[in-house]
Design brief:
The radius of gyration is 26 Å and the shape is elongated. The longest helix has 30 residues. It starts with a helix and ends with a helix. The chain is built from 24 helices and no strands. It is mostly helical and 526 residues long.
Length: 526
């Protein structure tokens, strides 16, 4: 069983990491944007994902090696699309600053992260990535769906308010004050980039969905490793193909198993009946234990092993809470041999989201690497990675985002700027920024495993926390200093509306899962 309060805390940690990652870049001097972005990217997309997944999970390479080519390809592909969002997220910070840029970009991300799966489901109902998602048509027909769509509408209103705040700020602030807090402040460029960023960033959620089988394989590897440490040796079974599941379910005579005559059960419903109806489970065992039907034998073995949980409600509820039959099968087998599945679940489940990240983030790295190298060539800035001194035309570059500041360029051309590159501090600041950005994914995947019946809140909690922390940093760095009271009220109202929208979207998702507003109050108030 997950701990939703721990899950909430972990999501806020992820939001803090995401909302704070750009801060160390402000310490980078005499490097072009593409240089420090790529160095940081090596840490966030390559180094950290592999290190943490390798040391925190079981048999990483074995888990990845058993995945189908389509699983790895789709996870990588959506990671590449998300990479465009990550790339333009940095540009959004340059043009709009932390508070406004994050609010607009993640407002779009929250909206499209909610809408795209059901739209794709309606257009491509058999596409495996969104197999568990309802279509947009189904959503619009029920109250919970209407609440969710209302939340999306509120999100778009919040974006409009934040955009108006940016326009007000740009029109009222003196040019010198704008460039002092955000060197390249550009409302028009920023809104266009933030829109694209938010839409593409939503692909991160789709990549995680594509990599679900990686998570399952990681958990099973942990079970096997943990059981072996206790002297219990079990073998993993492959997931039963959908066609064989359907064939088994179609051949089941429900009347002979004590159910209503003519009642049809799919494979998932059969497993639920085994877990909740001991008489049904006993008949499954009696019928299929010695059958030549391979699927029937595995189902009967599962029923027999599950019955051995006896009065151990925690063990039974742990097994029931697992998503896939192969997970349930392995867990019940461990219980039948005297293993403590509850302890194994607590120890290994929290890390199961990590093995998908090296594949997903490799896609993001690909996009950003190509773009940054192209900029290195175009701007002739590649030498900065190894040089001790910067060329005069690049002397005004750095993490403050001053590449196009005319005053800085003029000063550099007059020879009034120190040309020495602080190489080690630049690498350290970039590494810190990249590692901090990775931790949003680290904590997100951990938090999602803990939400239990409140898993609906994961995406919305993450979005809200990022917006809040980024806004706090924006105020700390005086990005709104010098703007009018109207602009301050608008950005505060826009951010509040965006946070509200994520809550409403979460409420709609909660209602879709049979949860009430009372459930959300219990989550917040205990």
């Amino acid at each position: 069983m997950g701990n939703p309060f721990l899950g909430v805390f972990l999501h806020w940690c992820g939001g803090l990491a995401s909302g704070s990652f750009y801060v160390p870049y402000k310490g980078v001097k005499k490097w072009s944007w593409e240089n420090y972005w790529l160095v940081g990217g090596f840490f966030s997309w390559i180094i950290c994902p592999w290190i943490f997944a390798y040391f925190m999970t079981s048999d990483l390479f074995g888990v990845l090696g058993q995945q189908s080519a389509s699983t790895l390809a789709w996870t990588y592909f959506f990671g590449m699309l998300w990479g465009f969002g990550g790339l333009t997220y940095g540009l959004t910070m340059r043009f709009l600053g932390l508070s406004l840029g994050t609010g607009v970009a993640l407002g779009y991300c929250a909206a499209f992260g909610t809408l795209v799966p059901p739209i794709f489901k309606a257009l491509t109902p058999n596409f495996f990535v969104f197999a568990g998602s309802p279509s947009i048509v189904e959503i619009s027909k029920v109250t919970s769906g209407q609440v969710t769509l209302a939340g999306v509408g509120i999100c778009l209103v919040g974006i409009a308010i934040a955009a108006l705040a940016g326009y007000t700020k740009e029109s009222q602030m003196p040019e010198e004050q704008k460039k002092k807090s955000i060197k390249e402040f550009s409302f028009k460029k920023g809104i266009l980039v933030a829109t694209f960023c938010g839409i593409m960033s939503a692909c991160f959620a789709f990549a995680l969905q594509s990599g679900k089988s990686i998570n399952i394989a990681s958990l099973k590897a942990g079970y096997i490793q943990g059981a072996a440490a206790s002297g219990i040796h079990v073998a993993e079974s492959a997931e039963i193909p959908a066609a064989k599941r359907d064939q088994f379910a179609a051949g089941l005579d429900t009347a002979a198993f004590g159910l209503n005559a003519g009642e049809k059960l799919d494979f998932a419903a059969i497993i639920v009946n085994i877990e909740t109806n001991s008489a049904f489970a006993a008949k499954i065992i009696a019928t299929y234990a010695k059958s030549t039907d391979e699927v029937g034998q595995r189902v009967a073995a599962y029923a027999s092993n599950f019955e051995m949980t006896g009065t151990n409600e925690l063990a039974a509820s742990t097994i029931i809470g697992l998503a896939e039959f192969s997970e349930k099968e392995l867990a019940a087998n461990i219980v039948s041999k005297g293993g403590d599945i509850v302890s194994l679940q607590k120890h290994y489940s929290i890390w199961t989201g990590l093995p998908a990240l090296p594949v997903l983030l490799l896609g993001g790295f690909t996009t950003n690497f190509i773009w940054c190298v192209l900029l290195n060539v175009k701007n002739r800035s590649g030498y900065q990675y190894f040089a001790s001194h910067v060329k005069e035309e690049h002397a005004h570059h750095g993490g403050t985002g001053s590449e196009h500041n005319p005053a800085a360029v003029a000063a550099a051309n007059r020879g009034n700027v120190d040309l020495k590159i602080p190489v080690l501090p630049n690498y350290l600041f970039s590494a810190l920024a990249g590692t901090t950005w990775y931790f949003q994914f680290f904590f997100y995947t951990m938090g999602a495993t803990q939400m239990g019946k409140y898993d609906f809140a994961s995406w919305t909690l993450h979005m809200a926390s990022i917006i809040i922390f980024a806004t706090i940093w924006g105020w700390i760095f005086h990005e709104w200093k010098g703007s009018s009271k109207k602009a301050h009220l608008l950005i505060a109202g826009g951010i509040a509306t965006l946070v509200l929208s994520t809550g409403v979207i979460g409420l709609g998702a909660a209602m879709a899962g049979g949860r009430s507003f009372h459930d959300i109050l219990k989550l917040l108030l205990g």
